[in-house]
Amino acid sequence: MAVGSAPSALARRFVVVTVSASVAVATVLAGDAGATSRWRVTESVKQQIGGGLANFDGLTAVSPKLAWSVLGHGMGASGAILLRWDGTAWSRQELPEGLAASSVSDLSASSGVNLWLAGQNAEMTRSYVARWDGTAWTSRLLPTGDSVERLLVRSVKDVWYFTLKGKAGHYDGKKWRVHDLGFTAFSAVAAGEKVWAVGGDTDSGVPRASVWNGRKWKKTRVAGEGTLYGVTSSAGRIWTAGMVSGHAALLRWNGKAWKKMKAPQVAVKDLVPDGSGGLWASSWPSYPASQSGIYHFKKGHWSRASIKGMPGSKHPLAVNRLVRIPRTKASLWAVGGHDNGRTDTSALIMKCGS
Predict the structure, then answer these.
(1) Cα–Cα–Cα angle for 306, 312, 316, rounded to 5 degrees
(2) Full domain range(s) for residue 268
(3) How much of the chain is in helix, strand and coil states, percent to nearest 5?
(4) CATH number of the domain residue 101 falls in
(5) Is 53 a member of any domain?
(6) CA–CA separation, 201 vs 166, rounded Å?
(7) Is the whole-model pTM more than 0.70?
(8) Tens of pLDDT, residues 110-132
(9) Does a structural domain hold residue 2?
(10) Coil vs helix vs strand at 184
(11) Neighbour count for residue 312 (Cβ, 10 Å)
């Protein structure tokens, strides 16, 4: 995607991928050397069968010794693979036949016994959400004709999903209740008792941001045209980023309205706090390829991170997801790969900090 052109609200690929039982892993280790150079590639997972390439799209972490990632999109036949970090290494976690044959779009967890997946079945006719309770998987089918874009799991009794057609489903531990959000939410974050969701209206092309106050969803006004792709809470403030009116945008909520802040020169895909009042952001793939990757925002200044062990490629790097690692001061995981315009040609796991 060229810088300056807004990715469409449907830019997320829903192409399925074939996976195999064998996962080739190459590990590159590097030392820390400053805020933007602590990033390194820890795993390069090659996943190919029958001409299909797998992409990392989902990532979640609950502690330094427990995280999951999922390969669920790409070009090829249907399938998904779930990888689990145990504090020492990534290994494959078996999925039931139905989930293993599906296309997984996102995952989120609050503990080792509360992991949720969302995706579509092998026939791409029904969407689902599924939960791992530490012993077994259970799943729930969603209404026909819709698909989950994002999951947000806060606890066993507080789970949200957000769909392409603007629905926000909430599980309270006993039953589901579905709310009409009114737009496609591509990102969501919890902030105290509130939940923020951002995205865009596919009909009007207007960026949208709403907040759940515990009783209902309340809209906030975002000026311009475009889509918001990332939202996070850092140092008690809510931040969102995306493409607005043809330009990269970074906005901060001041309690009453969104205030424009200095944005990077690339469109932001994901956004997380850095643990000290700043932000980490991943970019949509852009040209020249040297502009793509991971960016750090601190004291009003953006800098592009150096990622040690990055394999060479003529294609731009697409970092599909960033997550802060709980119970650490400033460590993060990231997943993505080099994007040739149709699919990722590599599947990389990256880490910042210890």
Answers:
(1) 75
(2) 24-352
(3) 0, 55, 45
(4) 2.130.10.10
(5) yes
(6) 9
(7) yes
(8) 999 999 999 888 777 889 999 99
(9) no
(10) strand
(11) 5
